[in-house]
Write a structure and sequence with these properties.
two-stranded antiparallel sheet; 2 domains; mainly alpha; single chain; about 325 residues; 15 helices; three-stranded antiparallel beta sheet; hpI Integrase, Chain A
């Protein structure tokens, strides 16, 4: 709902700036094509044709209201998302729009091809094992904040690089104790199952499970005991005076925690984000020689192509395939 509200606000502002009127429902195909033309354009062509792309008056209007900040065309994914939400809002009003028209699809396809963009990683650097160790080294006390952050880092990484929304939304009801795992040369290791439920790529109908073994289980238990969490949300906000909230932390807080710990560890916080744990898990699996299918069982990636992009990254630059000449 927040995403729909945000996109509708932008669309209304753009509609007023571009046409002088509020958005019509349903929007005609010509208006949808205008939206694409205003947001997906060629910077090189703009240098010789000032009328190409978003008109200067529309740009200035949106910029003065804070809707535009960066310079240049929008990312294709942003344009597609706003069109998708525009289509959803149109259906909610009981109308059929022209969002599936061949002309609109062709316009988007041609615009994307005309201006190839380099896809950026969600996290500039992956949180691999060595980076994770530095982050964990900043969580050495028995304070609630250190215990919670240590548990978040270890659980998110060890469970296959869980998404920040999955970590923030984790509830004690999703956890189940498993029989201990026999240790190689020492005592048995504690084991825990996390029933993921509904995620970004699953509906929740199937019982997707990932497992924690050893230190991550100890870290999670230490936090839950110290915070006296017996039910409900696992990871919660901590007040100024050390009071543990009943409400779950916000997904964005997971991102903030990683950046704060990176700064405390002497790293550049801008280079790391929550997604770095996800990419870092598969990167570390490759570094340790863990087969990709086995790593995907834990990360729950559905696409081999996407997972292998992280998995193969450590060796591609220095591998034999890049040194054939």
């Amino acid at each position: 709902l927040r995403a729909l509200t945000s996109d509708l606000t932008y669309l209304e502002a753009w509609g007023l700036a571009a046409t002088g009127r509020s958005l019509p429902w349903p929007a005609p195909e010509a208006l949808l094509l205008k939206f694409v033309a205003h947001h997906l354009w060629d910077p090189q062509r703009r240098e010789t044709d000032p009328d190409h792309g978003m008109p200067a008056t529309v740009d200035a209007n949106l910029r003065s209201q804070g809707f535009l900040k960066s310079v240049g065309p929008h990312a294709p994914s942003t344009v597609r998302r706003r069109l998708a939400n525009w289509s959803t809002l149109t259906r909610w009003r009981g109308f059929d729009g022209a969002f599936a028209s061949p002309a609109l699809k062709s316009a988007i396809r041609l615009a994307v091809r005309a201006v190839p963009r380099t896809r950026r990683r969600k996290s500039a650097k992956a949180v691999t094992g060595d980076v994770l160790a530095k982050l964990l080294a900043t969580c050495t006390t028995d304070s609630l904040r250190d215990l919670r952050d240590r548990a978040i880092l270890m659980v998110a990484f060890a469970s296959g690089g869980r998404r920040r929304s999955e970590i923030a939304g984790l509830r004690s009801e999703q956890l189940s104790v498993e029989p201990p795992i026999p240790g190689d040369d020492g005592p048995s290791l504690p084991s825990l199952a996390i029933h993921l439920g509904r995620t970004k790529t699953t509906s929740g109908d199937e019982d997707d499970v990932v497992y924690l073994t050893g230190r991550p289980v100890d870290a999670l238990n230490a936090w839950m005991v110290a915070a006296k969490i017996e039910s409900g949300s696992v990871f919660r906000a901590i007040g100024r005076w050390g009071t543990v909230s009943r409400r779950a932390i916000d997904p964005q807080s997971v991102n903030a925690i990683i950046k704060q710990r990176a700064e405390l560890a002497g790293l550049e916080p801008g280079e790391f984000s929550a997604h770095g744990l996800r990419s870092g898990y598969l990167t570390e699996a490759a570094n340790r020689g863990i087969p990709l299918p086995e790593a995907m069982e834990q990360s729950r990636h559905r696409s081999i192509q996407q997972a292998s992009g992280y998995y193969n990254n450590p060796t591609r630059r220095s591998g034999r395939a890049a040194q054939m000449v």
